[in-house]
Write a structure and sequence with these properties.
The structure is a homotrimer of 287-residue chains. With 287 residues, the first copy, chain A, is an alpha/beta fold. Helices cover 59% and strands 9% of the residues of chain A. Chain A is built from 14 helices and seven strands. In chain A, 46% of the residues are buried. The structure holds a DNA duplex (26 and 26 nucleotides).
DNA sequence: ATAGGTTTTGTCAAGCTTTTGTACAT
DNA sequence: ATGTACAAAAGCTTGACAAAACCTAT
């Protein structure tokens, strides 16, 4: 295993603790003992990052720095998977570090210790939200977001294997034409699968006629179209209306509102993907 | 295989890294070792391009260039395609070595690459069969088998989480009293879940009154009792008869034959757990 | 366990009692006896915070300060949590109803909100104790207990994933031959993992030769054997003596007493699984 | 409650070194 | 293409400082 090591400035950026303070914590409390590069630069590992984050959290909670350091140092270096927040933090760190193996390990720990819905709601959705916000503020690099997306999508699709089998009601899922963000849609599908539904997944940027063809051929109990911006749906408002005439159509995502849904003859889903899946499962069955 | 090779300008254009910098990375960190053309031009392969992209992504994420190069060079050029037999072999080795984490990693590789039913049929069932044969021949249990059973059981129960949700028919699964081998029953449950059923799992060594109580409370579409030896079932033949009177009872495992099942008023299931699950799903639904 | 301690200002902010008054209560009534830091600062524990809150509530209710202090000092310190009891109750209900998914959801809520050790101590151990008492009184097993045990076991083994990784000392855990109650052993393993140990888990009903083989192959810092009844251990007393000769052997569970342990050349562990893990971690390390 | 002294802790400065992308001459 | 050079950015160490928080005693 090759350690991912960063210098003090990067650690400072990631943790929000200034380089000066990091050095002070090292000098005064022995909080960190980074190895040095040839040029005598400090090199920090992800475990160090976890320590600093823990320290910072305690200090912000009002614990004196010296005490916080004592506590952090007394804790085992490797927290067991039994610790939810630690595992969630490890996932974030691994994704930031382009650490493919580490990301998978952290996800494994989370998913084997906790239910999928909890992991989705408490870890994955907040992470997606954070990426979105950072992207808006221009803080995250394209490469980083891309890496995280690829890792998560691959992993979630792995979980999704065989999700179209069984005897439950069937749902056909797609992103609106032009809409490329599909992680939320996959989470939605997995949550719905957890309720016993069968999923037919068409993925990102699905042309409306593909969707209509699938709908005609499968006669699903629900057709779901997701869009993060309103424009994507308005552009195909007419076709959606046609589709709604022949299948139970649901619209989801931030680009949806009640007015638009009604205009299409569709029904809106609300909230995050996990909540929306519960809403659909509750509402569609009695029909 | 003839490599498609490009010159430095083209590589720079593709990766967004200037030619000067590419040369600097080669000189300082040995990141690349391109072959030379007749005119002493550098010629790069797709693997080189992958290296440069990985390097660039890390540097943009804040990792110092020297560190990034060290990491990129330490990684295998192409992450080996998941090879089924290799992963299966790794699983066997890890289980022999009492290596919990290694076993999980191997199982992860198998399950993320090949789907549950394949893994069950090609790896887990043969393993169970081998244990069963040894046991039949009266060979003393090999020490590692105990560990392996515990690891696999924990892992499969992890896959099983939430398997009673949904709208499908419900099955209540149990081992006969005294029967401790439950791996097969878990595989059976997972295969049945794959068919859309809901599973209530009572596990090894289930007292008959526990089973009867669960059956009354849940009114399942099937109650399944497993035993590897005939004696376990004969010992509770009377109670099984009572249970069969109030619920659809199925018997499975090597300890079952048609005569015994009939005598109890139950129906037999045949073959390995995956096959038996298919049989139950096919036979129980039309009822 | 490392205490989280705060200084007087933070305690004042948290309780709404001024630093001056806190010092006065200490001087006049001996309400608190905080330890001092190197620089002679007072350091308060969460128990102190509970005391101050109780004191404040009484004073505001009109009780004279001296009287209030006397009452508070006579009371045991117990921090309560309403959220916690609600989630614990939901778990109990779901387990009673054979509701697998509901049980997992309740466990998710507990584990992600309160941390493993708290949940173990406040929910799971009392549950085990209740089962144990019923069993001792010879009451027939309630059907639900069987289901509950299976669910909890699967869940805890999920949390245990990867618990043999890391660099800490290694422990090999097993139930004595014939001993089928393994929930306590898993809790013990998880608590020990929380102390930084690596765990190799052999589970219920472990033949002595399996245990010996694992011990020889892994050379652990501790081998632990659990039994709830004394007979299980006496039946293998000779083999335990041999094992104790080649590895540090510890015995735990209600079936252990000092005399028996000494006769085997082993050392006894006391109290519930979490306490026993702390005992082992404290005693085995200096060796 | 105030006064006067001590401890804690985040921040800064000066002077020097290392890293790393880019530039230029041959 | 090669080899050398350069300069901006980032780091290192030592030492110090000052605001906030805390102590005791009156």
């Amino acid at each position: 295993m090759v350690e991912r090591r960063v210098r003090i400035g990067e650690l400072a950026r990631r943790t929000g603790v200034s380089p000066d303070l990091l050095r002070a914590w090292e000098r005064r409390y022995g909080l960190l003992a980074p190895v040095r590069s040839d040029g005598n630069y400090r090199l920090y590992t992800p475990a160090d990052e976890a320590r600093v984050s823990a320290m910072k959290a305690r200090v912000e909670a009002g614990v004196p720095a010296g005490e916080a350091a004592r506590i952090v140092l007394a804790e085992p270096v490797l927290p067991g998977a039994a610790d939810f927040t630690a595992a969630a933090g490890a996932l974030g760190t691994a994704l930031e570090d382009f650490d493919d193996a580490g990301s998978h390990a952290a996800l494994d720990a989370l998913l084997s210790g906790f239910g999928f819905e909890t992991v989705a709601r408490e870890v994955l959705l907040p992470y997606l939200r954070r990426i979105g916000e950072r992207w808006e503020r221009g803080e995250t690099t394209v490469a980083q977001e891309h890496f995280a997306t690829v890792v998560l999508r691959g992993r979630l699709l792995g979980l999704a294997r065989g999700w179209d089998r069984g005897t439950g009601p069937r749902a056909v899922l797609s992103c609106a034409p032009g809409e490329l963000h599909e992680l939320g849609l996959i989470l939605f599908g997995l949550a719905l699968r957890g309720q016993g539904w069968r999923i037919t997944y068409l993925g990102a940027d699905t042309p409306l006629d593909s969707l209509t063809a699938a709908s005609r051929s499968l006669q699903p109990a629900a057709v779901v179209v997701v869009a993060l911006t309103r424009g994507r749906l308005e552009a195909v408002r007419a076709e959606l209306g046609v589709l709604a005439g022949e299948a139970p159509l649901w619209l989801a995502g931030a680009g949806v509102d009640a007015e638009l849904a009604e205009a299409c003859g569709a029904r809106p889903l609300h909230g995050d993907p996990v909540a929306a899946a519960a809403e659909l499962a509750g509402a569609a069955l009695p029909v």
